[in-house]
TrEMBL record:
Enzyme class: transferase
Family: Belongs to the UPRTase family.
Phosphoribosyltransferase domain segment(s): 12-214
Gene3D superfamilies for the chain: 3.40.50.2020
Species the sequence originates in: Polaribacter reichenbachii
Reported function: Catalyzes the conversion of uracil and 5-phospho-alpha-D-ribose 1-diphosphate (PRPP) to UMP and diphosphate.
Superkingdom, taxonomy of origin: Bacteria
Keyword set, alphabetical order: Allosteric enzyme, Glycosyltransferase, GTP-binding, Nucleotide-binding, Transferase
UniProt cross-references to PANTHER family, sorted A to Z: BIFUNCTIONAL PROTEIN PYRR (PTHR11608:SF0)
Pathways per UniProt: Pyrimidine metabolism; UMP biosynthesis via salvage pathway; UMP from uracil: step 1/1
Protein's name according to its UniProt entry: Uracil phosphoribosyltransferase
Cofactor(s) of this protein: Mg(2+)
Reaction(s) the record says it catalyses: UMP + diphosphate = 5-phospho-alpha-D-ribose 1-diphosphate + uracil
EC number: 2.4.2.9
Amino acid sequence: MKTHQIEKKDSILNKFISEIRNIDVQKDSLRFRRNIERIGEVLSYELSKSLSYTNTVIETPLGNKDIQLCDNKIVLCSILRAGLPLHQGLLNYFDDAENAFISAYRHHPKNDTDFEIVVEYFAAPEIENKTLILADPMLATGQSLVAVYEAIKKHGTPKEIHIVAVIGAKEGVDFIAENFPENTHLWIAAIDNELNNKGYIVPGLGDAGDLAYGQKL
Ligand SMILES: O=P(O)(O)OC[C@H]1O[C@H](OP(=O)(O)OP(=O)(O)O)[C@H](O)[C@@H]1O
Ligand SMILES: O=c1cc[nH]c(=O)[nH]1
Ligand SMILES: [Mg+2]
């Protein structure tokens, strides 16, 4: 897997990341969702540089102009719930993409610290031989992404996979690197060093799904 950690180079992205991490600013859920969306837009732009392009002639009112246009058949698949605002950011740029949604949540059968990932809902177009963009803002242990990939694999084999995430933990990045095909790309804004005993990224930002959409039972 090739990891692209976009915040390594300073840019306006830093402001959006600082706001989603900030304990005061993140309380404004409208701003939180919009910041995740804006980060999705920045990551889309970075990812777009790795896609394939074909020469196309565009007719303007005054003549013709050659331009290289992306010819990948993209399926944009986001993991519910927290993936929704990131999905919108990606779709703002990859507006021709087909769309897929898959659910994954942490089920705690015994206590707060042990959990298993439950994947239930999957709605997708044909993915065989297409460019699959898998989006989830948080990459903590990596178990959700791997569980989702196992479910998606049963429906076809994409030509290539691009994972898009906002904040990850080193441990989770290593885990997905072991479990996704070698030609997978990870486009991620920031990578933190630690996970706590509940599998939350430290310092991270807290619970992305709750910050975007409110607490769940
Ligand atoms: O890398 P992992 O350890 O699997 O954790 C990351 C997952 O946790 C969050 O979802 P959550 O289960 O909180 O669901 P939600 O989006 O409904 O809040 C996040 O959006 C990822 O899907
Ligand atoms: O840090 C984390 C880990 C999982 N899910 C989140 O929303 N945040
Ligand atoms: Mg959550």
